[in-house]
Design goal:
Pfam family, one: GreA_GreB
InterPro entries: GreA/GreB_C_sf, TF_GreA/GreB_CS, Tscrpt_elong_fac_GreA/B, Tscrpt_elong_fac_GreA/B_C, Tscrpt_elong_fac_GreA/B_fam, Tscrpt_elong_fac_GreA/B_N, Tscrpt_elong_fac_GreA/B_N_sf, Tscrpt_elong_fac_GreB
GO molecular function, one term: translation elongation factor activity
Helix content: 25-40%
Distance between the termini: 56 Å
Radius of gyration: 22 Å
Order of helices and strands: EHHEEEEHEE
Number of strands: 7
Number of helices: 3
Keywords: DNA-binding, Elongation factor, Protein biosynthesis, Transcription, Transcription regulation
Family: Belongs to the GreA/GreB family. GreB subfamily.
């Protein structure tokens, strides 16, 4: 028998910022549309075909595609919730000269001679973008509201790193 866990014992999964860039929002909408109109109908047809063959207990096609259908439905539910909850943050001229959400920031560590160009975005936009960082990351939090030429200290497990802001750009 399963024990019902009282709400006070449940763990809050994340405490992420619910902001997203317009480009990120469009990508999520496209993904939802693709899953709903292309992938899900294909998998549903495969499940129906496999079910029509008879005995399902040893039918690998049936079991695999039923599992895949559950995964797609889970992603559809997640995307629908995200698209409803996310706040799309558009560029505004008042952001110029300051590091804010959606900014491309070039930073440099003079001690180690490292240069990086990063974009500060929401968590859901990180997948597949190696030059994007989450707004909730220590680096992004340190950079927020800073200007070109400012130096920021980022505290990490291996020690503090000092980064200088070389440029700030926004996608307009």
């Amino acid at each position: 028998m399963r024990r019902k866990i009282p709400e006070s014992e449940t763990i809050k999964l994340t405490n992420r910022t619910l902001m997203i860039t317009p480009e990120g929002f469009e990508k999520l909408k496209e993904e939802l549309n693709h899953i709903w109109k292309v992938e899900r109908p294909e998998v549903t047809a495969k499940v129906s075909w496999a079910a029509s063959l008879g005995d399902r207990s040893e039918n690998a096609d049936y079991h695999y595609n039923k599992k895949r259908l559950r995964e797609l439905d889970r992603r559809i539910r997640y995307l629908r919730v995200c698209l409803d909850e996310f706040k799309v943050v558009e560029y505004h001229p008042s952001q110029e000269g300051k590091v804010m959400f959606g900014a491309w920031v070039e930073i440099e560590n003079l001690q180690k001679g490292i240069k990086k160009k990063l974009r500060i975005v929401g968590y859901e936009e990180l997948i597949g973008n190696s030059d994007y960082i989450s707004m909730d990351s220590p680096v992004a939090k340190s950079l927020m509201n800073k200007s070109i030429g400012d130096e920021v200290v980022v505290k990490t497990k291996i020690g503090d790193m000092v980064w200088r802001i070389n440029s700030i750009q926004y996608q307009k």
